[in-house]
Amino acid sequence: MTYFRHRNFDQYANPSDIIVWRYFKLSTLESMLKYRTLRFNKITEWKDAREGHVEPYTIETLSKQLELINCEQHIVDALNKFRDQAKHKVFGCCWCVNEHENNLMWDTYGRSENKNVGVAVKTTLDKLYASITDENNIYSGNIIYEKFPFTPKYGNIYIDCVVKDIQYQDEREHRLFFIGDESDTVENITYKDIKIDTSQLLNEIYINPESNDEDYKSVFDTIKESDSNLHFTLNRSSILNKPRPYSTS
């Protein structure tokens, strides 16, 4: 199975019109080219401790909603427990919705540890979806930004996995995610590598604003050595471009 649209997650009506970016280290790009996979990390491993977390307020509110329809208490308890445990088997991959580069995303995700070069992939949602070749069901949804605690709804126990604190709304995130099984809930499983068609995804690549000519050549050569048949353009970030001088001519 490849990418699968789910009715319970917010989607864009015309994915071909939506430009998305993903910023990461050069080593991540090398891995994508070598193994033809896209890494999905378990959401409980992310820095934001609220990712997938079910607040006590959420449990209390949902319990009251279920009581109003005379749902038996043991069912209420089971549903709330299942919802709280859902985060331990959800793996996600985040993309930034934007027509242009985002300097904050470069600063946060597009820097390498040992050398000053990071990369970003620019594509559209339809190409991103088409690039997924994995046999597992891959879902997606626009992130819902809420002020915590927020009033939840039943309908899909995984809805908490696409809700973030409103403080992160500048990221404009669209998330791909994979829902594992009980074997994935163990602590030592922190990621899943999802199969992709790199020729569909890696067509427009950018290098970070501080990169120089040597960095550009290094990244270009790395890509060609990893996949000589890949058709791509490698662009320099324009964020630090100097303004043009004023001229009356």
CA distance, first residue to last residue = 59 Å
Overall mean pLDDT score? 83
Question: Please, how many helices?
Answer: 7
Derived from helix and strand composition plus strand pairing, the structural class reads alpha+beta
The rounded Rg comes to 21 Å
Low-confidence stretches: none
- Tell me, briefly, the overall form: elongated
Relative helix content? 25-40%
Strand content: 15-25%
The main sheet comes to: 9 strands, mixed
User: What is the H-and-E element order?
Assistant: EHEHHEHEHEEEEEHEHE
Please count the beta strands (DSSP E, at least 2 residues each).
Answer: 11
Report on the structure:
The protein has 249 residues and is of the alpha+beta class. The protein has one domain (15-236). It is 27% helix and 24% strand. It contains 7 helices and 11 strands. Helix 7 links the parallel strand 10 (204-207) and strand 11. Helix 1 packs parallel to helix 7 and helix 2 packs antiparallel against helix 3 (73-85). The longest helix is centred in the last third of the chain and has 14 residues, at 213-226. The termini are far apart.
